[in-house]
Amino acid sequence: MTYKTEAPLGTAAKVAVPVKVKYCLYARKSTEQEDKQILSIDSQIAEMEKLAVNEGLEIVDRKQESHSAKEAGQRPVFNEIIAELKQGKYNGILTWAPDRISRNAGDLGRIVDLMDQKLLVEIRTYGGQKFTNNPNEKFLLMILGSQAKLENDNKVINVKRGLRTRAAMGLRPSMAPTGYLNSKNKDEKCQAIVDHQRAPIVRDIFHKVAYEGYSGRKICKWLKETEFKNRYGKYVTLGNIYRILRMSFYYGVFEYPEGSGDWYTGKHTPIITKEVFDIVQEKLKVEKKKAYGREFAFTRMLHCAYCDSGITAEEKIKELKNGGSNAHIYYRCTKVKNRDCPNESVSETILIAEMLPIIDTMSLDKSELRQKLEKEIARYALFQTGVLKQDLPQSKKHRDISIKIFAKYMLQHGTLLEKREVLSCIKSKILLKDKKLIAE
Q: Full-prediction pTM beyond 0.70?
């Protein structure tokens, strides 16, 4: 029972008035390695329920979560407790230990502020500690919370040092990539051993790219046809295929951390040779150059309506009987998110025709494009009035119509940058579905 002092009317004496404490039982278990020794949430709740019965504590709510307390404001249930304390639903917290409440200065500060506002009367732990709105007790609570934060910070430093040590020993400190498995022997932690089921397929992936001219997409199709799956029973995605092809680990070396410039020779058995790896890297450069060697006007602006993948484009040259040729640009779904996406390809001519009605719905009032178009229209108007001696309508309505017409002209006949500039004024998301455009 906590007391507060009040002075009755007509007297100067202060009388201690008991404050009824209503508790919220809060149990938390971090998902991190550091908390493996902490009792499970169910065990925490059971033990604290017994304590409440033995000491006659009134528990009005029970809350639990599995979440790290290292960062402030990231625990949904703890945030609920803060809100309900402010609402007066309860005024006390019963928890396993002070570090269950906070391991960071931000959340700890919120708790102390509630104590200062007398919204949080008491914090009680299973170990018998009590923290009230008393300077010494609040100071002790802050010391214990700071100590928990210091332990966390030191553990991060120690873990990073340990990982660097493992890397220097030739042990890549992360999950083994496809084609390898992590050793289950505790004495060989981080040791990657060859996955004899998948390693031959991974070797074939490199060889097909290096010597048979396979592209990433062709590899992806081949793996599906052979029913190849990773250790989790899932098909390997196109993105993962490219990560595999760029991973030096397969020929025996690795960089840790990635991008650091620190390279180590692994203790694992290589699946391929460095010669094969180097050939593959050159092939990937050529493939990337083919894919990104030319830019198209609308690829960055559109998404597939079926699978939400991006839209890519390619130019096809048709040879004519008279010896000439015609170039046609076609847009299609990249199928990154769904290899079986049914969306149809569409020519740029049809695509632009679909875009023209959208221009009429656009607002150009505050755009930089409007200023540019107005200058071009004014220059043309000067030619009409000064050279051709034509009278032009001057109303705002006619000026707006002229701007929209000029925007359509740029979309049809402008440069790549001008076309993109026009489309950038469309604020809604543009989807391509069966040769039709949909503005969301």
A: no
